[in-house]
Design goal:
By secondary structure, the chain is an alpha+beta fold. 42% of the residues lie in helices and 18% in strands.
Length: 103
């Protein structure tokens, strides 16, 4: 999330909205967001993890979701999925995908 926050200007310039979705409970996400001073919303998928299940990113045996970004266009179509778990390449690929959408 730090990488997305540090790149928020790039997302904004690409006319993209960043949303974080986590399987953690809302109070935990609030503290996390406050600690990192995030400028985008974090949404809780707790306790049922239905969003993570629907998008195929839930790692059920560990009770977590994989680090995955879904780039969704203005019509609601998923146009790119970024599943690189390494923060820096993941964040950069996400910014580039949003910039491509703007063109």
């Amino acid at each position: 999330m730090k990488g997305f926050q540090s790149g928020i200007k790039n997302f904004n310039e690409a006319e993209s909205q960043v949303l974080g979705i986590s399987v953690d409970a809302a109070p935990s996400l609030k503290r996390f967001s406050d600690d990192l001073t995030l400028e985008f919303p974090l949404l809780s998928d707790f306790p049922n993890k239905n969003t993570a299940k629907a998008y195929g990113v839930l790692i059920a045996e560990r009770g977590i979701a994989s680090r995955t970004t879904f780039v969704i266009d203005k019509t609601g179509k998923i146009v790119e999925i970024i599943a690189d778990g390494r923060p820096a390449p993941h964040n950069e690929a996400s910014i580039l995908a949003c910039q491509r959408l703007k063109k």
